[in-house]
Amino acid sequence: MRRRDDKGIIYSNDEEIEVLRSDGTAERWNKNKILSSLLRETNISKDAATIVTREVEKLIKTMDLRTIPAPLIRELVNAKLIEYGLTEVRRYYTRVGVPVYDTQNIIINESSPKKSSEVLARRIKGEFSLVRLYSSSVVSAYHRKVLHINGIDMPDGFFEVSLDLDSLKKNGVRIPDLKITLKPARRLRTFVNQVLVYSEVTKYHTVSTIYWNDFNFVLAPYIEKERISEEDLRDLAQSILFELYTREIPVTIVLSTEPPTAHAFGPRGEHVGEYRDFTETARRFAEVMLEEYSKGDGLGGSFEKYVRIVIKGTPQRELLNDYMFFSKDTVLPHKSRYSRGSYAIIEEVSLNLVRISEEARNDEEKFLEGVERYKNLALKALREKSEFLTRVNIKNTIPDVESWEKYNALSIYGMRESIMRITGEDPVEDKSSFRILKKTLDIVARGRPFVLNYSCPHRAALRFSRALQKDSSYEPEIPSLTEGISLSRAMNIFKEVQDYFDLDVYMDVYLRPSWDVVLKVSHAGIYGIHFIHRR
């Protein structure tokens, strides 16, 4: 039944209104549900929540509706919150989701129902991160593309993970959530399958990549015991690469030219001596792995979408390849980059120095102040992610995750270009400009409870560069500090930076990784260099 008030406004009877819930059920209208949800989900005062609730109820009763969807009620509440200037309350009360039009396009265009579900879930999680996880100052910097949070769409996961494969040898695999318990492997193929299973579970908690460190030495005791032939080794390498690619498991396989200084474990996790006893077998498998990786799949397609290979240790000619990374055995501030134990990078935040220089109007003093300010904002984002992750229950999926060492990472974008904008000179050639470069790195590195990477991840670099391209005055960024200069000058810069900070600064060198180049860098004692051949 409907009635009119003294102003002629039509009201519906409370009993006639039904609320359609998101789970498909319906219930009678009850204004107290709005009041309780506001008090539960936000920090609004009870008096303010009561006023908003009363206003929303009045609005709904003027609509002459028999049924009203719950999401529409939330939209009306949010509109009232904005009307009363309660924007921060609205931020916490808003509903995360994907517009119907976008949802339809994702469902139609993705390759499978599972893939479209994953894309939708990541979109929703990314929105949740921005409206709930991170503070408004961090979100503002993210939207202005001064900061990039690389794991924005996986707030409940890690950015990067390294697995302790020796632990799998000794303990097998135990995943309570999936009711999987596998005893320590007796055979090579069984152990490889266990590594694949554990990595596939871990990928759902990882944004970037999973490291298999010293993989050739880890497998060597099995290979030697079973006397695996060359042909069977090739089949094994092909199988590993194929499984990683088809299962879409992002893995970095670290092949070492030098044995780890650790006890070796073999079948059933038994102690079988030292890893140096298996050096020749490990090197033989590394050569096979690289050759099969270079060949690609049956049609010559590359595996690099999900798999990359890093070679560490003393360089060897037979282990150098155009498509590979070469790296000395680098060290993070607290831990070996290619550690044998399990560790996780919780999050990596990237700083856009070009945008900071724009905000500073290319003034040196303001630029350095901006670097300090946004570095602290990046640290705030890292703390917020770390705190949130402690509330996420993943120990039943990754049983030993609580024993992992955990770090955060900070990366920088546009170092060379930002300084060229400020001084008009290239810091590679100009001493005064190089001084500003040192000051900038000093600010970023000072008192750092994080891993410092000179080159930021691809997603961050792409987002930053696209944002800058909208500026008509933008010139393409020089992606590396050492782009377009001689090798000797590049090595001098690396040595100066490393000696100045007494730490490793990871930088990419866009040079063809020829044998002569590798030897020169190795003999110079430079660490933290990745050679990338751009095809």
Plain-language structure description:
The chain has 19 helices and 20 strands. It is an alpha/beta fold. The protein folds into 3 domains: 92 residues, no CATH class; 163 residues, no CATH class; 135 residues, no CATH class. Helix 5 runs antiparallel to helix 6. The radius of gyration is 28 Å and the shape is globular.
Pick out its properties.
535 residues, three-stranded mixed sheet, disordered N terminus
List strands and helices in order, with pairings:
Layout: E1 2-4, E2 10-12, E3 18-20, E4 26-28, H1 31-41, H2 46-61, E5 67-69, H3 70-83, H4 87-93, H5 100-109, H6 113-133, H7 136-143, E6 147-149, E7 158-163, H8 165-171, E8 173-175, E9 180-182, H9 188-203, E10 206-212, H10 215-226, H11 230-246, E11 251-256, E12 263-265, E13 271-274, H12 279-295, E14 307-312, E15 325-327, E16 343-352, H13 353-359, H14 364-389, E17 405-413, H15 415-423, H16 431-445, E18 451-453, H17 458-469, H18 487-501, E19 507-509, H19 515-523, E20 529-531
Parallel strand pairs: 3-5, 7-10, 10-11, 11-14, 14-15, 16-17, 17-18, 19-20
Antiparallel strand pairs: 1-2, 3-4, 6-16, 7-16, 8-9, 12-13
Helix pairs in contact: 1-2, 2-3, 3-4, 5-6, 10-12, 11-12, 13-14, 13-15, 14-16, 15-16
